[in-house]
Amino acid sequence: MLLFSVLAAAIAPGIALLAYFYWKDRYDAEPLPIVIKLFLTGALTVLPVMIVQRALTLWLGESPFAFSFLISAGIEEFIKWFVLFHIIYNHTEFDEPYDGIVYATAVSLGFATLENVLYAFTETVTFGMLLARALLPVSGHALFGVFMGYSMGRAKFSSGRRSKLHLALALALPIGAHGLYDFLMQTVPSRWLWIMVPFMFLLWLRGIRSVNRANAISPFRLLKREEEVKP
């Protein structure tokens, strides 16, 4: 019973956050089988990412900056970006900017959920610690996915240099946010870790703003309006 409770506590935050961003798609919900596939794909990337990160740690050392921006954020966000670009970017179901957010958060939360499960069963944890992880790293991964998906959605429906710029931002923005998160967690003294509360609040503000902007430029928004005004 305890095993099941710990497993549920480790998995629930990722599922809840994915459901939240999935339901924020106002105009054309994505097929659940594709979303689930990307969630599971994100989970499958955990092991290879851990192997690469271990190798880079042995090579680059464990300085806070190198670990935060290169070993942790750099590798994790690049793998997520690579998966999205090669699996879903050119898919026919990716037909509005908000789809990028749905698919990117699916990959990110698949990764975060398995990472959370591994943490729960390899460390001595309490439910309070799992709650803290739900509020910090798991929701952090969701928001990094929002930043990636928003820019990837803009890239998909742009052309030329603007498309390339947004594709670059789809990688650079989550690496920057993720790296800063990890850097603060490593360098700020424990008695000052309350600073993560306003930091996460700012991330959420930016994330919700991206969600609203992506919905606002959906081509299905105009179609829905036209249907509503038809007699």
UniProtKB/TrEMBL annotation:
Entry's transmembrane regions: 6-23, 35-53, 65-89, 101-122, 134-153, 165-185, 191-208
EC number: 3.4.-.-
Superkingdom of the source species: Bacteria
One annotated GO biological process: proteolysis
Annotated coiled-coil segments of the chain: none
Function: Involved in the degradation of specific anti-sigma factors.
NCBIfam families found in the cross-reference section: intramemb_PrsW
Name the UniProt record assigns to this protein: Protease PrsW
Gene designation per UniProt: prsW
